[in-house]
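Teaching note: in complex prediction, the entire set of molecules is handled at once rather than each chain in isolation. The prompt given to students was simply: 'Predict the structure of this complex.' The entities are:
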Amino acid sequence: MRHRLLEACVDCLVEHGWSGTSTTLVSQRAGVSRGAQLHHFPTKNDLVVAAVEHLTETRGRELVAAAAALPHGERRTRAVLQMLADHFTSAVFSAALELWVAARTDETLLAAVAPLEARVGRETHRLTVELLGCDESRPGERELVQATLDLVRGLGLADTITDDARRRARILDRWALTLDTVLKERP
Amino acid sequence: MRHRLLEACVDCLVEHGWSGTSTTLVSQRAGVSRGAQLHHFPTKNDLVVAAVEHLTETRGRELVAAAAALPHGERRTRAVLQMLADHFTSAVFSAALELWVAARTDETLLAAVAPLEARVGRETHRLTVELLGCDESRPGERELVQATLDLVRGLGLADTITDDARRRARILDRWALTLDTVLKERP
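The expected output is the structure of the full assembly:
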């Protein structure tokens, strides 16, 4: 039942946004009584934060699984970037974006979202370092990984209001070339 | 009066977000009667889109003015990046972000926001090409400019829920170095 509520909440965030998501709508969608819902999640914030946390964990596992299937050799960097860009243009990203933006002007929500976001950020960073074969003890490599993640975050945001797939592909082609050049030119 | 309403609306979006911004709150803040407000802007969408358009134009003029004061020579690229990052972490960006995210799940709003966003995107792109001295006829330079703008957009989004200034500075230092290297290595 908890699982059904969480999935329904994510679907509502993706389809209707933060302001269109109510606990009533979520319980209807999940086919769960109001009483049962209130038992699991007393407030909208509790429900939404748990839902995004749940989805983030699911997607995190999916990312790790997708990472295992990435090619090695020449095409690897571009494939890593594609995997990250797919992640940042997915429904998970839309749901998380709704939560981030709502948290910007809601202190209670921010207190719940900020630690979640920090943890997700650290995990995604660590995975990217590993996938790209970066060495963070070398000057500038940590910042290149961070820039890569900020880039795909920016691409994700751009994609929310226009379909941006072709432009994104060209940018990622160029970014892969930049990364490969920098990482190959190591002393 | 129109001007006061637009400024009050932007302030509301920045402070209270999309869901906390009502036409009533905006007219109170502007000290304008409901009747006068409805005369200028019949719906919340009309008001909000006009407000963000107004602010974007103001900030666009400020960007052009700031651009004229940028240093030349070695420190220019980093200064251009700082100017862009300042833009994407400003109150304007927060107000625009509220609008983008709301438009994602509101077709009427999207129809108004998408052309505005496309125009702003083109203008910011053109300005960045000029400031960095890029030549878009050379392979990959257009994509580097786009990546730069997506990077600062991503940095802006990251900054909405945590103060991110120190991390951002290091990333921009590194990106300036990469851009200078690529642009200098032209055949």
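Point out the following to students. The mean pLDDT of chain A is 90. Residues 44-184 of chain A form one domain.
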